[in-house]
Known about the structure:
A 5-stranded parallel sheet has the order 2-3-1-4-5, sandwiched between helices. It starts with 11 loop residues before the first strand and ends in an 8-residue tail after the last helix. 47% of the residues lie in helices and 12% in strands. The protein has 210 residues and is α/β, with parallel strands linked by helices. It has 9 helices and 5 strands, in the order βαβαααβααβααβα. The structure holds 2'-deoxyguanosine-5'-monophosphate and sodium ion (2 copies). One sodium ion binds next to helix 1.
Amino acid sequence: ANAGSNSGRGALIVLEGLDRSGKSSQCARLLSYLEGQGCRAEGWRFPDRGTSVGQMISAYLANESQLDDRTVHLLFSANRWEKRALMESKLLGGTTLIVDRYSYSGVAFSAAKGLDIEWCKAPDVGLIAPDLVIYLDVQPEKAAERGGYGGERYEKIEFQKRVAEHYHSLHDSTWKIVDGSLSMETVEEQLRELATNCIQESQGKPLTNL
Ligand code: DGP
Ligand code: NA
Ligand code: NA
């Protein structure tokens, strides 16, 4: 299979997982593979800390500011909304987006604080729906061992365990679960295949919304 010949729209491919699940490295590896295949692709991540909303989120995650749980939830959602128009134009223009975290992080992390799941989903309704969600599945204990956490607000094992439970309740037909405890190379190989198939299958399909 060749991911290079993209005549139609780009695919929206999201990677999800706990902190230290290996998402960010795998996103980078997948992106360079796709680019090497001649595929037009970009790497995105949420939260996008570069916007003014993103800076508020970043200060909150660094424990430099305190914000009400629902307020923070809506900021994360707003941070995705402020990128929606650009996301749509990139995808329609034929660029595939490899996105490190999306709405599922929004729901899993806020629900882990005890917020109602349906309430958590509501503000993201109308964002572009991914063509593929790859969940990098690692045990919270294993993730914590990987070089330790960086000290941001959510990087605590008990909290990550609750996040994992909520992630598992969100799986739908667009999700593929990849065992993130396998070697980097094995995971990388699985992601290449999933992404290549997704890019080909997405070309003729219209974009849909969450
Ligand atoms: P990252 O930059 O991927 O390490 O993400 C920063 C942290 O923010 C990480 O612990 C996951 C969490 N996070 C990401 N997206 C959301 C979201 O939409 N809502 C909440 N509450 N947390 C999120
Ligand atoms: Na993190
Ligand atoms: Na990350």
